[in-house]
Amino acid sequence: MEKIKPQTSFSTRTSQVISLEKGKIPPQAIDLEEVVLGALMIDKKGVDEVIDILHAEVFYKQAHQHIFEAIHDLFEDSQPVDLLTVSTQLKKQGKIDLVGGEFYLIQLTQKVSSSAHIEFHARIILQKYIQRSLIKISNEIIEDSYNEGTDVFDLLDSAEAKLYEVTQGNIKRSSETAQNLVIQAKKRIEEIANKEGLSGIPSGFSKVDKLTSGWQPSDLIIIAARPGMGKTALTLSMARNIAVEHNIPVAFFSLEMSSVQLITRLISSETQLSSEKLRTGNLEKHEWEQLNVKVKGLEKAPLFIDDSPSLSIFDLRAKARRLSSQHGIKLIIVDYLQLMTAGGSQKGGNREQEISSISRNLKALAKELNIPVIALSQLSRAVETRGGSKRPLLSDLRESGAIEQDADIVSFIYRPEYYKIDEWDDEEHSPTAGQAEFIVAKHRNGGLDEIRLKFIGHLGKFESLDTFDTPTEIHSRMNDAANDDTFKTKNLPSPNEAFGSSMNDDFSADDDNDVPF
């Protein structure tokens, strides 16, 4: 039998390349690359339109990569971009011969007459690059999948991370020069100055924001406390301040409470109606009106709550990436760290190793998405057995010292009132009722401090200590006090009687004494 020889030649009658059985040509658009580069050298408007869309790696032909690098360098130096300057820049870099000489540059400029449709052409080039990147990633996934020693959960996480990078247009990040970084830093400082000193996400607590300049991108913030101190209440207050007042998207992952319970707490905080009243539905007419009016801002807030139980760090990262790409979240809150599982290959380790893996992955997630991640944490019982003020220490962090190591900020919540301590341990011996301390015990990029906050227990919320009671809050407290036995046993007038029954009537625009919602 005659042996069939494999086909190795190309057709000379057509310009198309004949693909062999297993030979595939990567997606490309050489003709469009030539057109775009030619347009960049003859029209400055074209440079302005696509310089932030393209980068050297998106070009398939290496010579085109060198030419675009020269154009990009000229643009950054605020130099004119044309045939002569690009040629001079390539000579300076010693790459003029690699691109085919000046004759090839002239050929590129002759292929076009203007920069019309250059953005459309540039996006096609980018699409071809993304296709090539997906092919490369897919091949890596296939190769790893055949490896029996690869953990399937690690493989899934790695695959999703690579695909997320494609979505964000960050296939491969190279080292940046000091010059570029200085320019970026100066631009960021100017933006901070315009935001009155806040370079990060505002927490809504003035003194905390002054200390931290807002929660910074890529930071891992740990907020730790003993049970009952108000960890969830504090972070919910922050989430409300950020999402409602500043319209910044926030993701809240709750492993302890259901989403309905959390939103009920937020409704209580927003409407100044106690959680007990909301649970029983025992509301007066004006309180129903108060409820309907006050929740409108909360309904429109970009707040996303996930109450999946036993959430693994793998699931968290996957969900966070999706929320980032779909809704552009700027802050993640996890309540709380010890309820998470490591998942994947970490299941067999001890609990300390598992917590270490979780904290490392939370820090990695913050850096990957370039947003702050706030994780709540429990403290050990050593606080309870210690005498004195019972202020938490870094050594009280439960189950792992890696939390302290990975975190950029470690803070504690301390309420002396919880321990039946009536006075602060300061010179004034001021009362502790309705107050808490936000203790910043570690701050990688700033100072340490003990900041006092106001704690409103029946509403489950924190406020800045210098915030005065709103009329609605006063009214809410009066309604609660009206049912207090003190007014009944001592025959004292109730607050509603003392201040007039008009507070429970419909509000009138002509009555200056009416209290607004």
UniProtKB/TrEMBL annotation:
<keyword id="KW-0347">Helicase</keyword>
<dbReference type="Pfam" id="PF00772">
    <property type="entry name" value="DnaB"/>
</dbReference>
<dbReference type="InterPro" id="IPR007692">
    <property type="entry name" value="DNA_helicase_DnaB"/>
</dbReference>
<protein>
    <recommendedName>
        <fullName>Replicative DNA helicase</fullName>
        <ecNumber>5.6.2.3</ecNumber>
    </recommendedName>
</protein>
<dbReference type="GO" id="GO:0005524">
    <property type="term" value="F:ATP binding"/>
</dbReference>
<keyword id="KW-0547">Nucleotide-binding</keyword>
<keyword id="KW-0639">Primosome</keyword>
<dbReference type="InterPro" id="IPR027417">
    <property type="entry name" value="P-loop_NTPase"/>
</dbReference>
<dbReference type="GO" id="GO:0016887">
    <property type="term" value="F:ATP hydrolysis activity"/>
</dbReference>
<feature type="domain" description="SF4 helicase">
    <location>
        <begin position="194"/>
        <end position="469"/>
    </location>
</feature>
<comment type="similarity">
    <text>Belongs to the helicase family. DnaB subfamily.</text>
</comment>
<dbReference type="InterPro" id="IPR007694">
    <property type="entry name" value="DNA_helicase_DnaB-like_C"/>
</dbReference>
<dbReference type="GO" id="GO:0003677">
    <property type="term" value="F:DNA binding"/>
</dbReference>
<dbReference type="GO" id="GO:1990077">
    <property type="term" value="C:primosome complex"/>
</dbReference>
<dbReference type="GO" id="GO:0006269">
    <property type="term" value="P:DNA replication, synthesis of primer"/>
</dbReference>
<dbReference type="Pfam" id="PF03796">
    <property type="entry name" value="DnaB_C"/>
</dbReference>
<dbReference type="InterPro" id="IPR003593">
    <property type="entry name" value="AAA+_ATPase"/>
</dbReference>
<dbReference type="InterPro" id="IPR007693">
    <property type="entry name" value="DNA_helicase_DnaB-like_N"/>
</dbReference>
<feature type="compositionally biased region" description="Acidic residues">
    <location>
        <begin position="507"/>
        <end position="517"/>
    </location>
</feature>
<comment type="function">
    <text>The main replicative DNA helicase, it participates in initiation and elongation during chromosome replication. Travels ahead of the DNA replisome, separating dsDNA into templates for DNA synthesis. A processive ATP-dependent 5'-3' DNA helicase it has DNA-dependent ATPase activity.</text>
</comment>
<keyword id="KW-0413">Isomerase</keyword>
<keyword id="KW-0238">DNA-binding</keyword>
<feature type="region of interest" description="Disordered">
    <location>
        <begin position="479"/>
        <end position="517"/>
    </location>
</feature>
<dbReference type="GO" id="GO:0043139">
    <property type="term" value="F:5'-3' DNA helicase activity"/>
</dbReference>
<keyword id="KW-0235">DNA replication</keyword>
<keyword id="KW-0067">ATP-binding</keyword>
<dbReference type="GO" id="GO:0005829">
    <property type="term" value="C:cytosol"/>
</dbReference>
<dbReference type="InterPro" id="IPR016136">
    <property type="entry name" value="DNA_helicase_N/primase_C"/>
</dbReference>
<dbReference type="InterPro" id="IPR036185">
    <property type="entry name" value="DNA_heli_DnaB-like_N_sf"/>
</dbReference>
<keyword id="KW-0378">Hydrolase</keyword>
